[in-house]
Amino acid sequence: MNFTVESDVGLKRSENEDRVAFCERLDNYKLAILADGMGGHNAGDVASEMAITALQRAFMQVDAAALLTEEKRQQWLETVISQINEDIYHYSLSHEGCKGMGTTLIAVIIDQANCTIAHIGDSRVYHFTEEDGRLITRDHSYVNVLVDNGEISEEEAQHHPKKNFILRALGTELTIQADFYSMELQEDSYLLICSDGLSDKLSLYEMAALITLPLALQKKGKKLVQLANELGGEDNISLILLTLKDKEV
Question: Measured between alpha carbons, how far is 151 from 153 in angstroms, rounded to an integer?
């Protein structure tokens, strides 16, 4: 597997509250994680750092038997994410400067070509082939509730003033429920995990156009960040881009 990781503070923020990591075990199970600390809340970087560090540590230590099947991987993620949520929540209550902190979370366990995805918040996972691209996750956002209720259209949601108001975040309440997705990567496809600093600036078409360019994977990742900054860069921009291709170009 070929992958690249990028995280950029953007042009308007003084601190980067995003955290991102990719790790691989000796038995070849892999974990891609992205957490976007909640902007406008205290200590978003603390929440995202706690989430990434705890999940990465748990993944590297868990017995392989817990990762053997899609069902087992989902069960393990549910258990670990629930514990991490409690830890962040209690930490926020006991540290004055951290009250109200929270973070989005994307966690993807990769077993060869099989991906088990856990999702909380408005960070996203996309899947691209040479022919098309699609959004895998669905934001836990106020505007998506309006869309589901038929009050606004998908197009109106893209420009709604409360577009970035999320309804679910890790660490803001005592309990949390992640959404789960499963998919299989094809040999010539790409998985993009990103924070809203990227997805708010680039359309699906613009992402696909860059990702399918005849460039090294690392250059594709850097160009995605560069374009998001050129289009305003108001937020932190983070991504993991991966493919089963051994080589690019």
Answer: 7
Q: What is the mean pLDDT of each run of 10 residues along the chain (249 residues)?
A: 96 95 97 88 89 98 98 98 97 91 97 97 96 94 87 80 87 97 94 97 96 95 98 97 78
**What is the biggest distance separating any 2 CA atoms in the chain, rounded to whole angstroms?**
51
Tell whether 27 is covered by a domain.
Answer: yes
Range(s) of the domain holding residue 22: 2-243
Residue 147: the pLDDT is 83
Supply 229's token pair.
Answer: 């900054």
Q: pTM of this prediction?
A: 0.95
Q: What gap in Å lies between CA 198 and CA 185, rounded to an integer?
A: 22
CATH number of the domain enclosing 81 = 3.60.40.10
Cβ-in-10-Å burial (0-12, 13-18, 19+) of 39 comes to middle
Mapped onto helix, strand or coil, the DSSP state of residue 118 is strand
Q: Which residues are CB-contacts of 133 (< 8 A; sequence separation ≥ 6)?
A: 126, 127, 204, 205, 207, 208, 211
